[in-house]
Amino acid sequence: MKKIKLAGHTIKIKFVKSLPSNELGKVNFITNEIFIAKKCYDLIVPDEQKAYSLCHELAHLYMYLLSMHELNDNEPFIDSVGGLMFQTFKTYIMEHLIE
Fold first, then answer.
1. For the chain, what are the domain ranges?
2. Three-class SS string for 74-89?
3. Cα–Cα distance for residue pair 68/84, rounded to 1 Å
4. Distances in Å between the alpha carbon of 55 and those of 9, 26, 92, 99?
5. SS3 for 96?
6. Can you say how many angstroms the Cα of residue 54 is from the centroid of all Cα atoms in its chain?
7. How far apart are the C-alpha atoms of 6 and 2, rounded to whole Å?
8. Helix or strand run (H / E) with residue 33
9. Ramachandran area for residue 8 (φ above 0: left; ψ -120 to 50: alpha; else beta)
10. Runs of H (alpha helix) within 1-99
């Protein structure tokens, strides 16, 4: 498990074997946890995809913490923000957060 700080909150990042419905990532706003799947459809998820999924889930968390709940349901917007974040921080994420 990894931890990061975000807006005064400690966010736990957990890399789990798999997630329900073969999701790649999931955020729990109540417990401040992000879950990233190591496997999806019984296939190993590549590190770069895990990093992208982490950025996508962080984008959801940003919108929640900013009280922009209406944007949290806009998956194309969230994926765009997550994608931009991934592009910007790819080297750092790949070196420090991926198990």
1. 2-96
2. CHHHHHHHHHHHHHHH
3. 18
4. 17, 11, 12, 15
5. helix
6. 2
7. 13
8. strand 33-37
9. left
10. 47-65, 69-72, 75-96
Tokens of 59: 């984008």
Could you list the pLDDT tens digit for every one of the 99 residues in the chain?
899 999 999 999 999 999 999 999 999 999 999 999 999 999 999 999 999 999 999 999 999 999 999 999 999 999 999 999 998 887 775 666 665
- Quick check: pTM over 0.70? yes
In the structure encoding, which two tokens stand for residue 25, read together?
A: 């990532």
HSE, side-chain direction, 13 A CA sphere, residue 49? 11
Are 84 and 56 within 8 A, CB to CB? no
CA dihedral in degrees (49, 65, 12, 2; nearest 10)?
60
Return the CATH fold of 2-96.
Answer: Arc Repressor Mutant, subunit A (1.10.10)
